[in-house]
Specification:
about 230 residues, four-stranded mixed β-sheet, 11 strands
Length: about 230
């Protein structure tokens, strides 16, 4: 449920969900969403009083994420493919297509004024790139991990808002965010190893991280790089 609240001179909306939690939980997301979870016994007035008490922190977090989005500039002028930055050139053509030429991405569109069409073509390109690269990485990591009794998993791809990947050990399925194609390949390798490790340890226990470090000793540096790029999900 979305609710409106005024913080400083900004009119904002927050998403409220009722959960069996002890405290009021507040989060500001990279895509600028504000989410709050609270027990159903806590009144809306108390929740909004809590949000108001966190106004300075909320506005600061929003400003940080907004600044990151402005710096990325990839929505209109730039395109990121496996961590490399490309200029975008849009041309009119008989069919919608994308080609990489040197440091430039050439997008051919039937209607060059259609921004939604441009984004659709780019997202389809990301999905194809991600499928090819991540599938190849999974085949490599599958051989490296050599997990007894594990058949090669089913690999799926989705445009996810808040996760880079997920593992379903029971069904032997790995799912990856197509936005990984924007990031350096070191990030994608980390995510693939991370998800394969869940076949051995389905949680994030000490044993999980010990095993991950055995597979990938520099996983912390790779995770740090991944976190720095998290605004790309928004």
């Amino acid at each position: 449920m979305k609710n409106k609240i005024v913080l400083g001179n900004r009119e904002l909306f927050y998403e409220l969900s009722r959960k069996p939690v002890k405290n009021i939980n507040l989060r500001v997301h990279p895509d600028l969403r504000i989410t709050v979870s609270a027990n159903k016994s806590i009144s809306t007035e108390k929740i909004e009083s809590f949000i108001l008490s966190k106004a300075e922190w909320i506005l600061s977090a929003l400003h940080k994420f907004e600044s990151k989005k402005e710096k990325l500039l990839d929505a209109e002028n730039y395109f990121y493919l496996w961590g490399e930055k490309f200029d975008i050139t849009v041309t009119e053509g008989r069919k919608n297509s994308i080609a990489v030429s040197g440091s430039c991405l050439i997008i051919s569109l039937r209607d060059t004024s259609d921004i939604d069409l441009k984004n659709k073509v780019i997202n389809e390109f990301y999905a194809l790139e991600c499928k090819q690269k991540i599938t190849s990485l999974c085949e490599k990591v599958y051989r490296i991990c050599n997990i007894n009794g594990l058949q090669f998993p089913s690999i799926k791809f989705r445009n996810m808002r808040s996760r880079w990947g997920s593992c379903n050990p029971q069904k032997c399925i790995l799912t990856f965010n197509t936005a990984l194609a924007r990031l350096p390949i070191a990030c994608a390798e980390y995510v693939v190893f991370h998800e394969f490790t869940h076949f051995l340890h389905p949680n994030h226990s000490k044993a999980f991280y010990s095993q991950l470090e055995a597979y990938m000793p520099d996983w912390k540096e790779r995770k740090r790089l991944l976190n720095e790029k998290s605004a790309l999900l928004s």
